[in-house]
Specification:
glycoprotein, six-stranded antiparallel beta sheet, mainly beta, binds 2,5-dideoxy-2,5-imino-D-mannitol
C-alpha cells in the first residue's frame, strides 16, 4: 500500500509538471516557448537542439542502456559524460517518463566509484529477476580491462529507482580470461531464463581477431560461468558491440518477454560492428539445448550481406520488452556529425532516436520499425494532399504548417513500372554508391521522387536535404532504391555530408506504391520507408536553422514518369518536455 501511495504521489507530481507545460497558451509559437524555457533554465538558445528527441540538458550522450518499464514509469539510462560535451568520464545518466515522450532527468544511476569501474561505467542492460530490475554493465577497471559488473536497486519500492548498489563482494562478476581480449569484452545483454533453470546473458568479445558473442550462465544471476561455445561467432567482421538478443513473433506485432522460447517465433541477434559503426541484425533460431543461435538459410559470414538496422547515422541500439503495452521498443544513439569545436560551443553532443516499436515482418525476414503511437500526442496543425499529380520535373511546397519540427507521412503511387533503368550488379552490395550517381540534372526513368526537407527559404533552395526513391530493374526484378543526399543539407563547413543508400525490401510490382514517413526535428531527420521496412536517420545542420530562419518542405519528382501522391499528411509537432532539470524532483535525500 505504501508503495502504491508513493507511486501515486509521484505520478501526481509528474502530471502537475506536464499540466504546467500543457498550459502554455497555444498562441505562443514554438520558438517563443523554447525561448521562455531557455531563459527559465539558463540555457542559451540553440536551434540545433531537438524538440522531441531524447537528449540530456547538456554534455555528452552515447548508447542507450537498460531501458525498462517499472512501477508505472519508463526508465532510460544512457552513456553520459557529466562534465563535458565530448566522450569521456563515462557514467550512466538516468531519466524517467510516463509516456516515452516527456522525460524527467534524475541523478546519475551508476558512477565511476569502485576499482571494478573506476575508469568508466560502459554499456549494459536491465533484466527482471524475481520481479526486480538488475543491471549488468561493463566496467573499465583499475587495470583498464573490460569487466562485467552487477548493480541492484537500493530500494526496489522507489519507482524512480534513484539509487543503485554495486556490491564489492560480487563485482566484477565476469573477467577476461584466456583468449578474451581485455580491451574488447563488453556490453552484457538483457538476461533470459532457460527451461533448465539457468539464466543466460551474452557479452561481445574479440578472441584473437574472431568476433564472439560469448554466452554466460548462472543459477542465481550473480555467479556466472562461461559456456564452452559462444552463442554465435564471426571470423570476418571484427568486434561486435552491444549484442541484443530477443524472440520475435511470426504471427503478431506484439513483443515478447526475452525468456519466451516456444510457439510461432524466431530469434533476432542484433549488434553494432565496430568496423563500420553500423548496427546489423540476423534472424534465426535459438537452440536452447545447444545454446547456439542459427541464422536462417542464406546466411554468409560477410557483413556486407547482412541487413542494416538503419541505413543512416545511428549506432549501439538497444531494445526492451514493454510489458505495459506488449511491444518491443528500440532506441538508438544518433551521434553528432559536426566538429568537436561545434560540440564544445553547443555544450552538448548526441541524441537518441525517437522510440520505435519493432517487430518481425510477415515475411519472417526483416525487422519493421515504426515510431511509437505516443508520438501523436505532439501533433498539432495538420495539412493534407490527396491524389495529387506530381508531374515529371515538378516540385511542390507543403505550406500551412511550420516544418522544422514535423511528422510527415506520404504515399507515392506509380502509374507503371515501364521505363525503369537498370544498374550494374556491382552496386548491389553498395547502394549508397548508386545513390551518389544520381544528380538533379540527370533525368531518370522512375524517380528520383521524394521529399526535400529543411530547405532554406531562398530561390533555388540553397540548403535542402533530399530523401528520395528511384525504381530500377535488375535481372527481371524491380528494385526500389532509397537515397539521401546530405551534400546540400548545410552551407556550413566542417560538417559530415555523406550520401546514404539502401534497397527497400518491397515488391513494388505488386501494388506500385511506396510510402515514406519522416520525422523532422531541427538537426535530425528520421526516415521510414515502406511502412518501416527500411530506415535512414540523418544528422543535418542547416545554416538557416542556426540563424533562426524558417524551413520549407517540398515533394518533388525528377524522373521522366509522372508520380501520383496518393495521400500526404504532415503535422507540425509540439515541443516535448525533455530532461529539463528539476532539483526537487530528483533529490536522492527523499528516497
Ligand atoms: N559504447 C560504450 C561501450 C560500447 C560502445 C562505451 C558502443 O560499452 O561498446 O561508451 O558505442
Amino acid at each position: 500500500m505504501a508503495r502504491l501511495l508513493l507511486l501515486h504521489a509521484f505520478l501526481f507530481q509528474i502530471s502537475i509538471l506536464f499540466i504546467k507545460i500543457d498550459a502554455v497558451p497555444s498562441s505562443l509559437l514554438n520558438s517563443e516557448y523554447q525561448q521562455i524555457q531557455d531563459l527559465c533554465f539558463g540555457n542559451e538558445i540553440d536551434p540545433d537542439r531537438t524538440a522531441f528527441h531524447f537528449q540530456p540538458s547538456k554534455n555528452w550522450l552515447n548508447d542507450p542502456n537498460g531501458p525498462m518499464y517499472y512501477k508505472g514509469l519508463y526508465h532510460l539510462f544512457y552513456q553520459y559524460n557529466p562534465v563535458g560535451p565530448l566522450w569521456g568520464n563515462i557514467t550512466w545518466g538516468h531519466s524517467v517518463s510516463t509516456d516515452l515522450v516527456n522525460w524527467e532527468a534524475l541523478d546519475l544511476a551508476l558512477d565511476r566509484t569502485d576499482p571494478f569501474d573506476i575508469n568508466g561505467c560502459w554499456s549494459g542492460s536491465v533484466t527482471f529477476v524475481s520481479g526486480e530490475p538488475v543491471i549488468l554493465y561493463t566496467g573499465i577497471d583499475d587495470k583498464h580491462r573490460n569487466v562485467q559488473n552487477i548493480a541492484f536497486p537500493k530500494n526496489g519500492s522507489d519507482p524512480l529507482l534513484r539509487q543503485w548498489v554495486k556490491p564489492s563482494d560480487y563485482n566484477p562478476i565476469m573477467v577476461p580470461r584466456g583468449d578474451i581480449d581485455p580491451d574488447n569484452f563488453r556490453d552484457p545483454s538483457t538476461g533470459w531464463f532457460g527451461q533448465d533453470g539457468y539464466w543466460r546473458t551474452v557479452v561481445g568479445a574479440n578472441m584473437k581477431g574472431r568476433a564472439e558473442i560469448l554466452l554466460y550462465k548462472s543459477q542465481n544471476f550473480t555467479n556466472w560461468t562461461k559456456n564452452e561455445f559462444p552463442l554465435h561467432e564471426s571470423l570476418s567482421s571484427g568486434m561486435w558491440e552491444c549484442p541484443d538478443f530477443f524472440p520475435v513473433s511470426l504471427s503478431s506485432r506484439d513483443g515478447l518477454d526475452p525468456s519466451v522460447n516456444t510457439g510461432n517465433i524466431k530469434h533476432v541477434l542484433k549488434f553494432g560492428l565496430m568496423k563500420t559503426l553500423r548496427d546489423y541484425y540476423l534472424v534465426g533460431t535459438y537452440d536452447e539445448k545447444k545454446d547456439v543461435f542459427i541464422p536462417d538459410e542464406g546466411y554468409e559470414d560477410d557483413y556486407r550481406t547482412w541487413p542494416i538496422l538503419d541505413y543512416g547515422h545511428i549506432y549501439a541500439s538497444k531494445s526492451f520488452f514493454d510489458g505495459k503495452k506488449n511491444r518491443r521498443i528500440l532506441w538508438s544513439w544518433v551521434n553528432e556529425s559536426d566538429s568537436e569545436a561545434d560540440d564544445i560551443k553547443k555544450g552538448w553532443s548526441g541524441i537518441q532516436t525517437f522510440p520505435r516499436a519493432i517487430w518481425l515482418d510477415a515475411d519472417g525476414k526483416q525487422l519493421i520499425q515504426w515510431p511509437i503511437e505516443e508520438i501523436k500526442s505532439l501533433r498539432k496543425g495538420q495539412v493534407q494532399l490527396r491524389d495529387f499529380e506530381l508531374q515529371s520535373g515538378a516540385r511542390h511546397e507543403i505550406t500551412g504548417i511550420s516544418t522544422s519540427q514535423a511528422d510527415v507521412d506520404v504515399e507515392f503511387e506509380l502509374p507503371s513500372l515501364e521505363g525503369a533503368e537498370s544498374f550494374d550488379d556491382s552496386f548491389l552490395l553498395d547502394p549508397s554508391k548508386l545513390c551518389d550517381e544520381i544528380t538533379p540534372s540527370d533525368k531518370g526513368g522512375i524517380g528520383p521522387f521524394g521529399l526535400l526537407v529543411l530547405t532554406s527559404d531562398v530561390e533555388g533552395l540553397e540548403e535542402h536535404t533530399g530523401i528520395f526513391f528511384k525504381v530500377y530493374k535488375n535481372s527481371d526484378k524491380y528494385m526500389v532504391l532509397m537515397c539521401s543526399h546530405l551534400r546540400s543539407s548545410s552551407r556550413r563547413e566542417g560538417v559530415y555530408k555523406p550520401t546514404f543508400g539502401a534497397f527497400v525490401g518491397v515488391d513494388i510490382s505488386k501494388d506500385k506504391r511506396i510510402s515514406l514517413r519522416t520525422l523532422i526535428d531541427h538537426s535530425v531527420v528520421e526516415n521510414f520507408a515502406a511502412g518501416g521496412r527500411t530506415c535512414m536517420t540523418l544528422r543535418v545542420y542547416p545554416k538557416h536553422v542556426l540563424t533562426g530562419q524558417t524551413s520549407g518542405l517540398y515533394v518533388f519528382n525528377l524522373g521522366s514518369l509522372d508520380v501520383n501522391i496518393k495521400e500526404l499528411n504532415a503535422w507540425e509537432m509540439a515541443r516535448a518536455r525533455v530532461n529539463i532539470r528539476n532539483d526537487d524532483f530528483i533529490s536522492k535525500d527523499s528516497v
